[in-house]
Amino acid sequence: MQSFRRMAKPVSYALITGVLALSLHGPAARAAMVSTDQIVGAQQSQQDRSKVVALLTREDVKTALSTRGVSTADVQARVDAMTDQEVHALATKLDQMPAGGDALGVLVLVFIILLITDAMGITDIFPFVKKPARR
Amino acid sequence: MFALLALAGCASSIPQTERVLADAHAYPKPVELATVPFYPQEAYQCGPAALAMLLQVAGVDISPEQLVPQVYLPSREGSLQIEMLAAARRQGRVPYVLSPHLETLLTEVASGHPVLVLQNLGLSWYPKWHYAVVVGFNLPQGELILRSGLEARHVVPLATFERTWARGRHWAVVILPPGRLPQTAEETPYLAAVVPLERLKHWREASQSYEAALKRWPKSLAAMLGLGNSHYAQGEKCEALWAFRRAAREHPGSAAAHNNMAHVMAELGDLHNAEKAALRAVELEGDKQPIYRQTLDDIRRQLAESAPGKTPRVSCPEPAGIRRKSVAHRRADIR
User: Fold this and answer.
1) Interface check A63 vs B, CB under 8 A
2) Cβ–Cβ of A105/B168 closer than 8 Å?
3) Domains of chain A: which residue ranges?
4) Positive or negative torsion for Cα B301, B305, B307, B310
5) CATH class of B2-175
6) What is the ipTM of this complex?
7) For testing the chain A interface, which of B121, B126, B229 should be mutated: the one with the most A CBs within 10 Å?
8) How far apart are CA B189 and CA B172, in angstroms?
9) For residue B45, what are the CA distances in angstroms to B63, B78, B88, B123, B187?
């Protein structure tokens, strides 16, 4: 946590510089043109602030996809094609989202069995399960 | 016993099916989109397979294998909905999420648009998530026809489908060729679905989509500005000017329309009118948005620097379709 705090300042400066540089080459090519995103989306001042957050979150989602088996070569383009809202949704609840692929939740079943066996006092996997006192 | 009854009660809850079947005379004949291609899915690859079927119909020649690195998430042995949408955008197509009603889904299929759906074929607590493509239905029989898994023609009772679809939160998507609107599209959600194409620099497809949106919603400010911005990004300044001019004319209170119009006018060398438009934007919202003031300052600097009469000016005569009536009359009089 301490090291994170120490890092936070230079990282945020670097990010803000990055955002400013980006906005110069924004979709509408000129700094003072209003983008369609700003018209369809929320108020602009809000968006500017959330841009910094969004950049940070995009990095988080890239890492999340990589650790879940997506090759580093593919991660960048996959995250680039998402909107800020989508990136935010993935960053906060990726593992709760359905992944269509016909996989059966075997892990869920194992989890339940272990939960029951834990409750019976046969196994001792989950600290939150209250084990029977004796036997 | 009570739990069993509750379960049974749950299983019989199919309000949408009941509604649709009560109104079955709306589609007395079966509908089937026989030309939608079929890709049998390989293990865990229903996402890429279903997406490839829709993209083929939308004019993108892409195989499920090519889509695997774009959507498949190995540790989850499946594909996330967000990534399915993102992958469609990468091919320059607008993925449009339908309103969660069976009627909407049927309307799209009847309009010739196959629909991608997410189902949970298992139970809510023991899920089996699955993507399939709805390609037809037969209301008198109460059936839906899907491209699903290894079956090119999976016929399923509407009631069963509704239960599996409801467990996937009624998620349904259409992906169409650029410039073609979903039959049931609504203005704001549709435009919000087009904007992300700009991020990926699919400007051509974005402008085609804005144009189609304007045909259906001729008053849409966002579509006009989107059209202007996407033409501008392609270097089509006259087309951009026409779009912004139309926006400023039909939405005189839009500062963004005047601001963007001012920019294009200035770049076309019409500094005098550019200043007027920029000033209008500042009057409207200059206190809220510093960029409008910036535009005005920019143009005034250019005006001060340019020798009078020396600025090269590009003229953009508006094509007949979007020309103002009074201007058209005036031109006719001159002739």
Assistant:
1) no
2) no
3) 2-97, 98-135
4) negative
5) alpha beta
6) 0.84
7) B229
8) 14
9) 12, 7, 16, 20, 33
Between CA B103 and CA B144 the distance in angstroms is 12
- Give, for B120, the enclosing helix (H) or strand (E): strand B115-120
* Whole-number Å distance between alpha carbons of B192 and B36: 27
Instruction: Give the 3-state secondary structure percentages of chain A, helix then strand then coil, rounded to 5.
Output: 65, 0, 30
CATH number of the domain located at residue range(s) B187-334 in this protein:
1.25.40.10
Cβ distance B195 to A86 less than 8 Å, yes or no, reads no
Domains of chain B by residue range: 2-175, 187-334
What does the pLDDT look like over B88-138, one tens digit per residue?
A: 999 999 999 999 999 999 999 999 999 999 999 887 877 889 999 999 999
Q: Determine contact, residues B39/B49, Cβ cutoff 8 Å.
A: yes
B18-51 pLDDT, tens per residue?
A: 999 998 889 999 999 999 999 998 888 999 999 9
Angstrom distance (rounded) from CA A26 to CA A34: 10
> Which amino acid, B41?
Q
Give DSSP secondary structure letters for B148-201.
Answer: ETTEEEEEEEHHHHHHHHHHTTT-EEEE--TT---TT--HHHHHHHHHHHHHTT
CA B266, distance to chain mean position in Å, is: 31
Residue B155: other Cβ atoms inside 10 A: 14
- In Å, how far is B266's CA from the nearest CA of chain A? 12
Residue in chain B lying closest to A85 (CA)? B82
Amino acid at B101: H
Type of residue found at B64: P
- Of B290, B230, B229, residue with least CA distance to B257: B229
The pTM assigned to this predicted structure is 0.81
